[in-house]
């Protein structure tokens, strides 16, 4: 019987064989083409409930496309995408999405922005849920402010709170901290880890930044340059919290990931072959 670590990107096993429920996210043979140009795939990827998966790769390799396919904003040219065992046919409340720009409604208060997706709830329940989300994201004191009165980090926290409002099983984040200064970014990374641990949500987090990918994820996936394919799947054995940025294992994982991306991005190189990938994996206890 395959272990959890044998299941990942190559050939997803079925739920019964794993002895558990469905994968949180499962992509099988997914390919995306625009005007006959394949930009992504084929991708086979299985993500277990509660994993924090970061996706890193060169610009234009299809990271956002991958996220949009899971969000249901885009339908794949080939293959299938499922969330919690159900085929994705469009966006849904089981998936929260956070973009690089917070996309808050400027005319609404922070509280109204956070509660926007909860309009179907009775007023008291909605207020209670918004208060809980503001507390969770450290925004209780900013409830009545408008987005323009917030710092960049606060705006992004409000966007995260809004995405979590419907208690999605999956949180999809597209470079959410890319526009923040380095200090705010580090603080937000730690806050996100805390949020993830307290909510148990499955997270897929797109980033350009190898450091961020390794620091945040329980699993960091590298995509090759176009068409984007999974070329590396790094599983973290770092202690969850406190999460020491200077930990030697963090440095080693970062180097492995950076080397794979560098080699895939070198001129004239396509995605690494199975043999090349195997060479990276040999004797490497940190990999699945
Ligand atoms: N709607 C679209 N129509 C045509 N081409 C598209 C569309 N969306 C994305 N592409 C192309 O698909 C490729 C992948 O784009 P995508 O935004 O997914 O990459 P990315 O890895 O997220 O890039 P970056 O890191 O620069 O944000 C690019 O070549 C892009 O031009």
UniProtKB/TrEMBL annotation:
It comes from the Bacteria. Residues 25-250 form the ABC transporter domain. Residues 264-288 are annotated as: Disordered. InterPro entries: AAA+_ATPase, ABC_transporter-like_ATP-bd, ABC_transporter-like_CS, ABC_transporter_ATP-bind, P-loop_NTPase. GO terms for molecular function: ATP binding; ATP hydrolysis activity. Residues 264-273 have a biased composition (Low complexity). The keyword Cell wall biogenesis/degradation does not apply. The keyword Nucleotide-binding applies. Pfam families: ABC_tran (PF00005). Keywords: ATP-binding, Nucleotide-binding, Transport. This is ABC transporter related protein.
């Amino acid at each position: 019987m395959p272990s959890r670590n044998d299941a990942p990107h190559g050939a997803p096993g079925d739920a019964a064989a794993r002895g558990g429920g469905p994968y949180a996210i499962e992509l099988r043979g997914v390919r995306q083409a625009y005007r006959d140009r394949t930009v992504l795939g084929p991708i086979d990827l299985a993500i277990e409930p509660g994993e924090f998966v970061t996706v890193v790769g060169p610009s234009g390799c299809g990271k956002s496309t991958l996220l949009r396919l899971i969000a249901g904003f885009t339908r794949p040219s080939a293959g299938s995408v499922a969330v919690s065992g159900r085929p994705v046919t469009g966006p849904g409340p089981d998936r929260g999405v956070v973009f690089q720009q917070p996309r808050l409604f400027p005319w609404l208060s922070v509280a109204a922005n956070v509660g926007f997706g909860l309009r179907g709830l009775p007023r008291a329940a909605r207020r209670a849920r918004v208060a809980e989300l503001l507390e969770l994201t450290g925004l209780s004191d900013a409830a009545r402010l408008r987005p323009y009165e917030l710092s960049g980090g606060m705006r992004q926290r409000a966007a995260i709170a809004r995405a979590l409002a419907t208690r999605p099983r999956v949180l999809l984040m597209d470079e959410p901290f890319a526009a923040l200064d380095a200090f705010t970014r580090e603080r937000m990374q730690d806050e996100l880890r805390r949020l993830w641990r307290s909510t148990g949500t499955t997270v897929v987090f797109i980033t350009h930044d190898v450091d961020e990918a390794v620091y945040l994820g329980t699993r960091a996936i590298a995509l090759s340059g176009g068409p984007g394919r999974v070329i590396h799947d790094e599983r973290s054995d770092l202690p969850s919290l406190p999460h020491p940025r200077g930990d030697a294992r963090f440095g080693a994982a970062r180097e492995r990931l950076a080397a794979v991306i560098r080699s895939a991005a070198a001129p004239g190189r396509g995605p690494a072959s199975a043999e090349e990938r195997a060479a990276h994996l040999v004797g490497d206890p940190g990999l699945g």
